[in-house]
Every structure is written in C-alpha cells, then in structure tokens.
Amino acid sequence: MAEVQWYYARNDQQFGPVSAAELKQLADSGQLSPDDLLWREGMDAWATAINLRGLFTAETPANTPPPAPPLVPPEPAAAAPPRTKGASPPGVSLRPILRTTQIVLWSMCVLVVLAGVVLFTRSFLVARSPEEEAAAAAVFATFFIAAYVLARSGEKLARQLLARARRRR
Q1: Would you call the peptide bond into 82 cis, given omega within 30 degrees of 0 as the criterion?
Q2: Model pTM score
Q3: What is the domain-level CATH number for residue 42?
Q4: If pLDDT is split at 50, 70 and 90, which confidence band does 70 have?
C-alpha cells in the first residue's frame, strides 16, 4: 500500500505532496504552523493542522527520533482534489467578493450617470442652436449607455464567479 501523501497550504500557496514523517518534521521545525491547512486523499475538505492528532505534540528527547504519527484526519470523507496555487481555502466564501464587486460597479454606474446629467445640463443650457442641443443629448445618451454596459458587466461577472464557485463544490 502506498504511503499517504499530504498537502499543506499557507498564505494562499499550496505545497506538497509530503509524507507523514516529513509533515511531522515540518511541524517540529516550525515551518508548519497550527493554523496552516492540510489535506490528503480521502478528506472532504482542508483541515487546520492543529486538528490532526499527533502532529503538534510535546517535544521528544534530542537523541530519540520522533515516530511518524498516523495523522488521523478529524473526520474521514470522500476524496476531493487538492486546490491549486492561489485558490482560496474551502471555507472562504465568494459572497463578500461578489457583494463588493457589485457595490463598486453600481457606484460607478451612478457616478457615470451623474456625470452625464451634469455635462448634459451644462451643455444644454449654453446651447445656442438645435444642433448644439442635439449634441448635448448625444453626450447624455453616451453616458447612459456606458452606465448600462457597466451594469451588465457586473451581472456577467457575478454569474461567472457563482458558476466557478459551484464547479469547485
């Protein structure tokens, strides 16, 4: 039977695979902290390193090599593929990212429309001919179209992020 291979993640970077003995050495040397995430085949989700029994234990005497712990995950589950570099940990929700993106895009839409209204009003008030009034209306229409494009882009981005999040599950 092949030895269990572990992956660990810190600061949105994934490392591994490493053996259980190497994982224990990383923990003992301080290169693996209790807050880092761990995963192995058979686990449903990433778990914090502190939750794996036998990984962070009292120091052993210097002459005695530490035994490789069994590193039992908190709860066995179906296999999930390890996440790729830069991916958010499983517990991270896209909801705040979507909300922030929507707020920013809608704020930009409002600002674009307000800028269009100001420019239209200014241009319309100083217009001396019907052609200048039509040009002012064209400026306003251009700003309105820009706001519409921003709003649609925000909707499309939100749909793509939600679809990506569903594929990850």
Answers
A1: no
A2: 0.38
A3: 3.30.1490
A4: low
Residue numbers of the domain that contains 148 = 95-168
Q: Are residues 24 and 71 in the same domain?
A: yes
- Tens of pLDDT along 72-119? 554 444 444 455 444 445 555 666 777 787 788 888 888 888 888 888
Asked whether 26 and 15 are in contact (CB, 8 A), the reply is no
Domain count, the chain: 2
- Cβ-defined contacts of 142-151 (< 8 Å, 24+): 142/116, 143/112, 143/113, 143/115, 143/116, 143/117, 143/119, 144/113, 144/116, 146/112, 146/116, 147/109, 147/110, 147/112, 147/113, 147/116, 150/105, 150/108, 150/109, 150/112, 151/105, 151/106, 151/109
User: Is residue 125 located within the same domain as residue 65?
Assistant: no
Q: Which pair of tokens denotes residue 169?
A: 């599950």
Are residue 3 and residue 77 in the same domain, yes or no?
yes
Radius of gyration of the chain (CA): 28
Give the position of tokens 């036998």.
54
Residue 54 scores a pLDDT above 60: yes
Determine, yes or no, domain membership for 90: no
Asked if the structure places residue 118 within a domain, the reply is: yes
